[in-house]
Every structure is written in structure tokens, then in C-alpha cells.
């Protein structure tokens, strides 16, 4: 893992000019001056091709050689095996697997559980579900291996629902209503316990690695997500010694890029996202013209009801919030048209950044896996499911010998 991390770090650092700057926030992307032929090719792509390449990558026969080369390098560095765990047992009543769990989530749980069982610590006496929610993962895994489970969940309503579902399923369950960051939860992290976390966000999973590893729990199985959620520090940090010495700086923008996948997003969500982006870009153009802004300034998180307004109403709300008035003669049709063109262009240029999504993600995940290895664990990183179920398909598996 260390050799792979260093190679990835070098690849990411060498090409940082291509992924650090967001075309969405810049009227002209710096690399356009150095690679004008690539910029021109991207801007001429039809919308359906842009969407196709964003999700599936560039085809060799239809892209500039440099983009194909970068894509091949990234794929080579990021290739990760798919776990080949045992099929789920069918004892008792398999229908309980489906109780209150929706389609794709159920498949994720089954795949995750199978990948965990492939490397299951034999000395485990209790399962701990970290950031448990309704306890679906811990409950189903406990059912599969006939062990008691502890659910740690901050939301008392979700925790209570999890306890009720476990009772219905016949699983021996302890529910701990607490913030996983509370050091009092250390009592749940003992050497005879295995901790599982499916998509525990950012620093919440980091805390599991550091505290669970320090306490020498039997096993840690974590599928990370939301890497940009870095906790109170607000900054990304490497946890492993090799990460500290070799890892390139990763901004929150870079960490968000690592999770910028829409492969499983429904069409309705994609359409809403496009509308939001278009409104943001139109607002940016208006601010530059009216108040003389020279840089993109994000209006922050936007409530869905705000995005659903017409473009003039949307801009009027934001201008009122900032304390300035929009000229009465504003040509809204022209601004909307420019926003559409701007979104098309920025989305196309962002395809270059998209080449580095998996590399940035793998760099972050490998750092966490190496951290666990440095604490004495036998560790590997696998894909626990097909990408159609979730693009956050990487699983860190650590077993203490």
C-alpha cells in the first residue's frame, strides 16, 4: 500500500494544475492557455457526450492523446479488487433481510456483509455498528454470525427504531444513544469486538480508526465517504506517517471532487442539480456586471425552495440578502442564456478534473488504511460492491492479529 500511495501522491502532485482550479468558479481556467487544443475539443462536445464521459470516462478513439494517457495512468494506479466473500447464509427466515430496507441499500448491506465475512476476525464476541442509524448493518451482520451487537447512534429516534427492528429480527442488541466522538463510547471499543461502519462520514470514521486502533479492537471494517467533512479543524490532514511525509495538500474542493459522482443519482436529482448550478452561474455573472465582482463568491447552501424560484426571483432574493438592488432594466433572458452557455462550458472543462476523482479518493483512503497498518493491523482495501450500487465502494478491512 505504501508504494502505491507514493505513486498516487506523485501523480496527483504532478498534475495539480489540472484539478486544483474549478472551472465553475473561474471565467478562464489557467490550463486553457497551455492546452488550448484540449479546451477547444471539450467545449465543442455535445451535452450528451459530456454526461457520458463524466460517468464513464473517455473512449480511446474519441479524445486527445493526453487525456487518454492521464485516464490510463489513473486507472492503473486506482485498480482495486472486488471482494469475493461468501454468499449470505439462508438460515432461519431470510425475509428479515428485507424488513424496512429499500432496494439499493439492501444490496449494499448484503455486499458489505459478504466482504466483511471474507476477513472476519475469529475472536470477535460482539459487533459494534458505528454511526448505526437504524442499525441495518449491525443487525444483519449480527444475524448472519449469531453474535450480539451494539449500535452507537446520535439520533434517539433512529436508535429506538433500530432497537425495535433488532428485536423483531431476534438479534441481541444494545443501543447506545451518543455522539461517536464522545470518549465515553470507548467502552464499546474493546479487543474482543469488531467495529463496522458503512459510509461513516469523514472525521467520524477517522475517530474510529484512531481510537479503535489504539484500543486494539478485533477488527475495523469501514467504507468511508464525505471526505470533505473534516470536523472542527476545517482542514484535511493525513493520519499515516507516509501520508504526512509524501501526501500533497488537499483542499476541501479537492475532497469534494473525490465524491463528485452522479452515477446512482436519479434523473430528478440530476435535473435539480443542473438548475441549481445554472442559477448560481447566472447569479455570478449578474454580480460581476452590477457590483463589479471579480471573483466567484458562493452564496452558500441553497434551500430547495430557493432554487425552485424563477431566475429573476432567485437573484432578487440573493441581492436583497447582500444589500444591493438589481437594475430595473435587467435583461433576464440574456442572463439566463449566458448562464446556460456558461454551465455547458464549465461542465465540459471539468471533465479534465474528473480524471482525478478516483485518484484523490484512493489517496485519502490509502492513507487511512496505512494508518491502521502502522497500528499493527493486517489491512487491505477492496471494493465491496458494484459501482452501480454506490460510487463510494471502497472498504478498509483491518484485523488485529
Provide a concise account of the structure shown:
The chain is α/β, with parallel strands linked by helices.
List the helices and strands and how they pair.
Layout: H1 2-14, H2 16-19, H3 31-34, H4 36-43, H5 47-56, H6 65-78, H7 103-117, E1 126-130, H8 136-145, E2 149-153, H9 156-169, E3 173-177, E4 193-201, H10 202-214, E5 219-225, H11 241-246, H12 252-257, H13 267-290, H14 304-307, H15 311-322, H16 332-354, H17 357-374, E6 378-383, E7 394-399
Parallel strand pairs: 1-2, 1-4, 2-3, 4-5
Antiparallel strand pairs: 5-7, 6-7
Keywords:
401 residues, alpha/beta, Rossmann fold, 7-stranded mixed β-sheet, 17 helices, 49% helix, 11% strand, globular
Account of the 3D structure:
The protein folds into 2 domains: 2-79 and 265-354, no CATH class; 94-253 and 359-399, Rossmann fold (3-Layer(aba) Sandwich), CATH 3.40.50.150. A 7-stranded mixed β-sheet has the order 3-2-1-4-5-7-6, sandwiched between helices. The chain has helices spanning 2-14, 16-19, 31-34, 36-43, 47-56, 65-78, 103-117, 136-145, 156-169, 202-214, 241-246, 252-257, 267-290, 304-307, 311-322, 332-354, 357-374, and strands spanning 126-130, 149-153, 173-177, 193-201, 219-225, 378-383, 394-399. The longest helix has 24 residues, at 267-290. α1 runs antiparallel to α17 and α13 (267-290) packs across α16. It has 401 residues and is α/β, with parallel strands linked by helices. α8 links the parallel β1 and β2. It starts with a helix and ends with a strand. The mean pLDDT is 91.
Amino acid at each position: 500500500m505504501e508504494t502505491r500511495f507514493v505513486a498516487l501522491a506523485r501523480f496527483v502532485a504532478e498534475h495539480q494544475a489540472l484539478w486544483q482550479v474549478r472551472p465553475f468558479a473561474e471565467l478562464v481556467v489557467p490550463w486553457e492557455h497551455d492546452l488550448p487544443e484540449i479546451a477547444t475539443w471539450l467545449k465543442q462536445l455535445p451535452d450528451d457526450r459530456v454526461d457520458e464521459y463524466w460517468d464513464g470516462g473517455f473512449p480511446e478513439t474519441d479524445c486527445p492523446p493526453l487525456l487518454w494517457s492521464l485516464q490510463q495512468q489513473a486507472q492503473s494506479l486506482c485498480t482495486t479488487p472486488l471482494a469475493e466473500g461468501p454468499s449470505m447464509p439462508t438460515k432461519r427466515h431470510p425475509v428479515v433481510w428485507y424488513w424496512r430496507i429499500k432496494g439499493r441499500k439492501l444490496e449494499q448491506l448484503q455486499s458489505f456483509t459478504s466482504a466483511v465475512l471474507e476477513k472476519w476476525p475469529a475472536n470477535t464476541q460482539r459487533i459494534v455498528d458505528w454511526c448505526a442509524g437504524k442499525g441495518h448493518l449491525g443487525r444483519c451482520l449480527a444475524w448472519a454470525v449469531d453474535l450480539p451487537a451494539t449500535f452507537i447512534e446520535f439520533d434517539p429516534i433512529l436508535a429506538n427504531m433500530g432497537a425495535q427492528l433488532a428485536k423483531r429480527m431476534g438479534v441481541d442488541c444494545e443501543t447506545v444513544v451518543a455522539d461517536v466522538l464522545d470518549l465515553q463510547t470507548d467502552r464499546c471499543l474493546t479487543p474482543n469486538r469488531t467495529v463496522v461502519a458503512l459510509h461513516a462520514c469523514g472525521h467520524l470514521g477517522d475517530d474510529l480508526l484512531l481510537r479503535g486502533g489504539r484500543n486494539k479492537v478485533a477488527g475495523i471494517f469501514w467504507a468511508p465517504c464525505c471526505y470533505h467533512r473534516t470536523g472542527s479543524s476545517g482542514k484535511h490532514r493525513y493520519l499515516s506517517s507516509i501520508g504526512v511525509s509524501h501526501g500533497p495538500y488537499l483542499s476541501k474542493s479537492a475532497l469534494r471532487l473525490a465524491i463528485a459522482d452522479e452515477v446512482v443519482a436519479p434523473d430528478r436529482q440530476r435535473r435539480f442539480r443542473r438548475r441549481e448550478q445554472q442559477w448560481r452561474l447566472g447569479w455570478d455573472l449578474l454580480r460581476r456586471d452590477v457590483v463589479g465582482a471579480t471573483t466567484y463568491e458562493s452564496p452558500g447552501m441553497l434551500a430547495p425552495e430557493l432554487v425552485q424560484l424563477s431566475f429573476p426571483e432567485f437573484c432578487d432574493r440573493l441581492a436583497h440578502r447582500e444589500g444591493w438592488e438589481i437594475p430595473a432594466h435587467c435583461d433576464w433572458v440574456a442572463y439566463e442564456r449566458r448562464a446556460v452557455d456558461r454551465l455547458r462550458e464549465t461542465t465540459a472543462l471539468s471533465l479534465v478534473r474528473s480524471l482525478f476523482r478516483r485518484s484523490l479518493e484512493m489517496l485519502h483512503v490509502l492513507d487511512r488504511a496505512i494508518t491502521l497498518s502502522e497500528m499493527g493491523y493486517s489491512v487491505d482495501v477492496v471494493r465491496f460492491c458494484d459501482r452501480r450500487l454506490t460510487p463510494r465502494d471502497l472498504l478498509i478491512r483491518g484485523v488485529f492479529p
